[in-house]
Amino acid sequence: MYLTSEEENILDGEQGETLRKAMEILVALGDIYGADSLIPVKSAQIAGVSYKTIGDAGLEWISDLEGTVKVPSILNPAGMDMVRWKEMGIEPEFAEKQLEIIAAYEKLGISSKCTCTPYYLEGFSATCGDHLAWSESSAVSYANSVIGARTNREGGPSALSAALVGKTGNYGYHLDENRVPTVSVVVDHELSGSDYGALGYIAGKEIGNRVPMFHLASTPTSDELKGLGAAMAASGAVALYHVEGVTPEAKQVHFDKPDETITIQRSQLDEVYETIIGNEDDLECDIVAVGCPHCSPEELNRIADLLEGKRIEKELWVCTSREVAQRYPDVVKRIEESGSKVLCDTCMVVSPATEGHNCMMVNSGKALAYVPGMCKVPAKIGSLETCIKKAGGDN
């Protein structure tokens, strides 16, 4: 891989040990994946934030780093709401470690806005063709597919390295040839809302890490595309997909039809809705959680409308970024008047507060894929309306 003289100097340690380590990671990955050079990135989104997932070893590694990131950089969700962690039942020892992790990242100049939907943040926009170094699976999928930007699914260390250097390797989805669809997915029935998460949950398992082109009978909204991509990234390893006539590259580029076609029937989606993942028994869900990926302003408004004038009977979490919640305080107030909790900075997947529940109802294919394995809690998917009813919000 070609390096400029400045990049060689960084690799030789002439700009400090932290940058040397960062460059070493980027060069190693570039060599593995056949990059010809490093390319500048517009921003970085860094995973490896929750103390639940990185532990003391991760905290120690981050704390030892010095320097300042070269591009706007933000964090993935943490293991708790940074303000209301006591209400979540988080232990003080966990909270202390989590706060240390955030402080270590902030020392490097990284914003502590912890979210898996950075594209909702003001001043952190990405546009079609931008090169990024993002690491959270659903954010990567949204950036590549819905925005038309270009990023590989970076690991936490490689995204942090790219943030510190301001560059990443020119390989994978940064290249035109790797963005070509390799399998067609046909869905000839109408879809709405959580159907896209259920579709993604099925499709991801069949597609793996390939690039699908979807042929749909209905036109998805941006939130529905978010749910589709997030589920495929969780149940499979899809980091880029196209939707005929909808996503940017599917409208701008003429792709040849892939040789393989997968057809997904309505009965397959119905089966996902009927199944409790992680347990064969017909368990009663004792908690409901929505906002995986984090809720958009439109989703928060929809939830507020559904909860209007109601009082829930079960725990109901609505996860979103702190910036979005602060931007719409009246909507948050409407939601919480029902007894629901609008939680920021975190989500049900990466927080220890999820553990110990009997069964969780979600409206997300991503949460359906992750919660049983990462949290050891069985999960069931339903529409947003079904989730509200399950929480007792039909009174």
UniProtKB/TrEMBL annotation:
Describe which pathway this protein belongs to, using the record's wording.
Answer: Isoprenoid biosynthesis; isopentenyl diphosphate biosynthesis via mevalonate pathway
Its recorded reaction(s) are: (R)-5-phosphomevalonate = (2E)-3-methyl-5-phosphooxypent-2-enoate + H2O
- Is-annotated flag, keyword Ribosomal protein? no
Q: Name one GO biological process term.
A: isoprenoid biosynthetic process
What keyword terms does UniProt attach to this protein? Iron, Isoprene biosynthesis, Lyase
Task: Report the GO molecular function annotations.
Answer: lyase activity
InterPro entries given for it? PMDh-L-like_dom
Q: Which residues form the Phosphomevalonate dehydratase large subunit-like domain?
A: 1-389
Which EC numbers characterise this protein's activity in its record? 4.2.1.182
Q: Look at the named UniProt entry and state the broad enzyme category this protein falls under.
A: lyase
Q: Which domain of life is it from?
A: Archaea
Pfam families, A to Z: AcnX (PF04412)
Indicate the quaternary assembly: Heterodimer composed of a large subunit (PMDh-L) and a small subunit (PMDh-S).
Q: Which family does it belong to?
A: Belongs to the AcnX type II large subunit family.
Q: What does this protein do?
A: Component of a hydro-lyase that catalyzes the dehydration of mevalonate 5-phosphate (MVA5P) to form trans-anhydromevalonate 5-phosphate (tAHMP). Involved in the archaeal mevalonate (MVA) pathway, which provides fundamental precursors for isoprenoid biosynthesis, such as isopentenyl diphosphate (IPP) and dimethylallyl diphosphate (DMAPP).
The protein here is known as Phosphomevalonate dehydratase large subunit
Q: Which organism is it from?
A: Methanococcoides burtonii (strain DSM 6242 / NBRC 107633 / OCM 468 / ACE-M)
